[in-house]
């Protein structure tokens, strides 16, 4: 699979969120390096890290903005965390796990960031866009 490169069409119009979303692309690209258990472990830890930093920040932003689809966002973010927990319980020596994580994160980029997150693009008042 080809590496992913950040593209302006990924932008949700809030630089802090874009910066954090780039971390997800790094996670996907790191998985290309190899398929060993260490890479899978790093990716899963990266998912937890991403969730604790980014989802908290994004939900706080959407709350301040009075965003009407906040609870849908929270539900999807929880599903991401549940998935990370599921991966962490799998046998990391199974060579298919890196492919599985990559597939999940790519789908997340396409379906969550490029669809759900894009819906808030025009709903954030200028004073909240640092
Ligand atoms: Fe989100």
Task: Describe the model.
The chain is mainly α. The protein has one domain: Hemerythrin-like (Four Helix Bundle (Hemerythrin (Met), subunit A)), CATH 1.20.120. 64% of the residues lie in helices and 0% in strands. The chain has 4 helices and no strands. The protein has helices spanning 15-30, 37-64, 70-88, 97-116. Helix 1 runs antiparallel to helix 2 (37-64), helix 1 runs antiparallel to helix 4 and helix 2 (37-64) runs antiparallel to helix 3. The chain is elongated. The relative contact order is 0.19. Fe (ii) ion (FE2) binds next to helix 3.
The chain-level structural class is mainly alpha
How many angstroms separate the termini?
35 Å
Instruction: Give the integer mean of the pLDDT values.
Output: 95
Q: Indicate the CATH architecture.
A: Up-down Bundle
Share of residues in strands: under 5%
State the order of secondary-structure elements, H for helix, E for strand: HHHH
Major sheet size, sense and barrel closure: none
Instruction: Write down the domain tally.
Output: 1
**C-alpha Rg, in Å?**
15 Å
Helix content bin: 55-70%
CATH superfamily: Hemerythrin-like
Under the CATH scheme, which class?
A: Mainly Alpha
């Amino acid at each position: 699979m080809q590496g992913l490169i950040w593209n302006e069409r990924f932008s949700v119009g809030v630089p802090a969120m874009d910066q954090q979303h780039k971390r997800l692309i790094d996670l996907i690209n790191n998985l290309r390096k190899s398929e060993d258990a260490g890479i899978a472990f790093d990716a899963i830890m990266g998912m937890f890290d991403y969730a604790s930093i980014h989802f908290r920040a994004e939900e706080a932003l959407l709350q301040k903005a009075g965003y009407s689809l906040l609870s849908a966002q929270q539900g999807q973010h929880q599903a991401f965390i549940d998935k990370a927990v599921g991966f962490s319980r799998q046998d990391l020596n199974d060579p298919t796990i890196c492919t599985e994580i990559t597939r999940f994160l790519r789908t997340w980029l396409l379906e969550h960031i490029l669809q759900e997150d894009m819906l808030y693009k025009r709903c954030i008042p200028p004073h909240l866009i640092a």
